[in-house]
Amino acid sequence: MTADQRPAVLIAAISGRALAAAARAAGYRPLVADLFGDLDTRALAEAWAVVPGDLERGFEGAALMEALDALAADYRPVGLVYGGGFDGRSALLGALGRRWPLLGNGARVVAAIKDPFRFAEACRALGIPHPAVALDGTDVSGPWLVKRAGGSGGAHVAHYRGVALGQGEYLQALVGERSISALFCAAPGQCETIGFSEQWTDAGATPFVYGGAARPAALDQDLAAHMAAAVEGIASAFGLLGLNSADFRIDRNRYWLVEVNPRPGASLDVFQDPEGQVFTRHIAACQGRAMTGQLRLKGAAVSEILYARKRIAQVPEIDWPHWTADRQPPGTVVEAGAPLCTVIARAESTDEARALAQSRKVEMQAKLEEAIP
């Protein structure tokens, strides 16, 4: 198949780079609309567009629709794959689904599974451990978190200090010691847990902002089997399709299913494979085709976000190392606390990959401090 014969696919996400890389590896031509237009996103994409919006509120809906129309004009995309930015935007997702075939969960499914109380009730009905949730602090004791329904990335999460909740906020009990995420692919009558990653927050950002992920996570075999069974149960209950991620908290041999992100999530980087099997499975599942064979990923992988320590009025020309991703174009304004780039490391073991990622992160921080006074 020549390059021009490869199918095109629309991608819309806050950052579309990881999905573009997965699509390109799977033999698709990515047409990417996101908030950043990073240098590596542009290199991976067949065509790209930067859409107005921000990390807190996501895309400006009308501008996104216009950008996707323009991207699709010279191609015949097989559909639209979406990433982060739509968990709390069911109306926008519904509009996208009426315009293009959605290669992912529909707006009703997303709205249902991101309703924290409906999700908690489904977990209770299935016998899946889940942290307690509440609409106010009247009867809560111990450590609790304030979250915003439909929020993502962790910036919307804070420790509960007894103050009144804002619109769309709710309380969730803080449980467990470690954060584990399961990447899974669901199709009618099928659900495959591709793997588990351990995740952490960034110490320099707000308390619960996503910092990075490592695959594979060190898990007791029986515990992993119970967690995979929980994923299968919740996927069936909500009718999930394609790639999704389930967030857990664990204590030794005990787990709680915290929430499900009904689309490819931040951990996609550590599940990338050179043959694009992960993305191929996603497309097959969303098109109603059976997933065949077992996907096995080799070695270990780590991705870590490097956040800006101060406001950068203008990103200069930077010689980005090959192990960086989400590379900022020259002239970009980066606010303090915003993502600056991603550091990726691969090795035989998780410990080796984490050590390599940490050394690369330190190296990149020093390089940026030298380049940006």
Report on this model:
The protein is an alpha+beta fold and 373 residues long. It has helices at 17-25, 39-44, 61-72, 90-99, 107-113, 116-126, 221-238, 277-286, 350-371; strands at residues 8-12, 29-34, 47-50, 53-54, 58-59, 80-82, 133-134, 144-148, 158-159, 169-173, 178-187, 190-201, 210-215, 242-251, 254-261, 300-307, 324-325, 339-347. The chain has an 8-stranded antiparallel beta sheet. Helix 1 (17-25) packs across helix 8 and helix 4 (90-99) packs antiparallel against helix 5 (107-113). The longest helix is centred in the last third of the chain and has 22 residues, at 350-371. The protein is globular and about 55 Å long. 46% of the residues are buried. The mean pLDDT is 92.
Q: Strand pairing plus helix content: what structural class?
A: alpha+beta
Q: Which stretches are poorly predicted, pLDDT < 50 over at least 5 residues?
A: none
Question: What proportion of the residues is helical, as a percent range?
Answer: 25-40%
Biggest sheet strand order reads 15-14-11-12-13-16-18-17
| Helix count from the secondary structure assignment | 9
Q: Determine the N-to-C terminus distance.
A: 48 Å
Query: Mean pLDDT across all residues, rounded?
Result: 92
Radius of gyration: 20 Å
Order of helices and strands: EHEHEEEHEHHHEEEEEEEHEEHEEEH
- Describe the global form: globular
**Largest pleated sheet:** 8 strands, antiparallel
